[in-house]
User: Fold this.
Amino acid sequence: MVIRMTKEIRHFSKNKNLHLILSIIMTVLSAFIQVYVIQVFMNPCNLLSSGFTGVAILIHLFNINFSISLGILMLNIPAALMCYKSVSKRFVFLSCLQFGLVSFFLNIFSFTPFFDDLVLNVLFGGFLYGIGITLALKADGSTGGTDFIALYISNKIHKSLWDYVFIFNTIILIIFGLFFGWVYAGYSIIFQFISTQTISRFYHRY
Assistant:
């Protein structure tokens, strides 16, 4: 009986370790796809993503000397430190790995734009961006940013805050539109809509 229980514990441990390895691989792939989309589809067309990555890109547009990769770290690390005691440690670890790799990959990779057409960049970029986020979510992590804050406060007040996250992203897009043109802001909304629909299609938590 004891021997059987020991074998079951070892089997469970191996499966748990295997699951973590697969999650890390998916997280690395998620970060790679996100960086690829930023450089190939978003930057050439002045598109803005949601969350803290979008904020970092927006700051970069105001000050070209500001590093997007540094901005991602500056915005995400305080949020991770704030909520790591209140949410799953695994979630925090995988999320930090994801945005940390995005910051790193932005510095070591330089991908060439694929399309000259704005609409094609929005369509393909939005879809691939959604796939990248889906991989992070399926790995039991996230892309960081507003996900940290939303989960942290939700756990404190026992109320969903995703509507407020949407309002935050809307405000960022309004600021973007005021300074850089409503056409680009409009295409950014379509980009985010496509990525959101892609996530909804391929990721089901329940």
